[in-house]
Amino acid sequence: MQKIVGFLVVSIVALASSAVAQKNFNWVEGTEFQETPLHIAVQSLQTGTGAYNCVFHPEVDREQLVTLRLTNLPRGVALTYVFDQAGYDWKKEGRTLHVLPPHTGEMGDREPLENEQTGRFVNTARAREIIFDSVEFDEAPLRDVVDYIHLRSVESSADGRGVNVIISRRIDAEMPVSFSLRNVPVSAVLLSISQTTGIELRLEEHAVFFDPPGARAMQLARLETKRLEWEKANKPQVNRMHRKRRYNIGTDPKDPRSPAHPDYVHSTHQDVSKRTNALNNVYKWVNGKWT
After folding, report:
1. Where are the beta strands (DSSP E) in 9-168?
2. What is the largest CA-CA distance in the chain?
3. What H or E segment, with its residue span, contains residue 201?
4. Do 52 and 77 touch, CB atoms closer than 8 A?
């Protein structure tokens, strides 16, 4: 009996150790790249049993230099942040990450957060917990400011995780930054940098990105262009969708816009279209009905 119990204990310990090892393989405790070629940065993160395969698009420059510092995040997420900082997009297929030209993958299809949503970083638990008693910069390069915030947030956080901050390659990392704050959370420091320099904040799950001014507006414009191109390429389907929205208003026979109205019965598509267009100029939707 004692042998069986001992065997079970050893097995449980072994399974627990295996699970911890698996998590460590899939988790980046800390890594730093300074002017590192993209393919070398990717290779350094492609370790462990849970490593992703990375396939580079022919238009992607594998020698593009990346500079960032990351702590405590999933290995796959760290890879996507490396791609992002290098100025490229990506697409995930199983355990493979395809590195793509800008705005042609998952980032290009993502709807940007509203400005007020981006500001909610102020209310996250970690940002509230990490308080700087004083922060002062006088014409300090943005790169040095970001490094300081990251290292100090790691030292000041209870779990030692800190906040990852990444500068887009489209921003001058030597841009001078000047401000002085007392007793503020790290989120307020990041917002102050954004306000004093004009650069935009982009909140990701494990990091905060500094993007150039207008990045969000450009992304919205690209999404709108994609939508218009899709509608043009799928015109029959779009017309069916519009007809469904336009005519299937209700089933009340007394509703002059309803398909159940006597004037609609046995009508041709052209007749229905004419009547609906005419009614658009006469009736208004008021308190749940057309008047």
Report:
1. 27-37, 53-56, 65-74, 89-93, 96-100, 131-141, 165-167
2. 88
3. strand 200-203
4. no
Residue 185 predicted with pLDDT over 90: no
Contact 276, 270 (CB under 8 A): no
Helix 142-156 and helix 186-197: axis angle, to 10°? 170
> What's the full length of the chain, in residues?
291
Q: Where does the pLDDT of residue 21 fall: very low under 50, low under 70, confident under 90, or very high at 90 and above?
A: very low
In this predicted structure, the answer to whether residue 248 has a pLDDT above a threshold of 60 is no
Give how far the C-alpha of residue 123 lies from the chain's centroid of Cα atoms, to the nearest Å.
18
User: What's the Cα-to-Cα distance from 43 to each of 51, 54, 232, rounded to whole Å?
Assistant: 10, 9, 42
Residue in the structure block whose two tokens are 């004692």? 2
Mean pLDDT, residues 231-260 taken together: 60
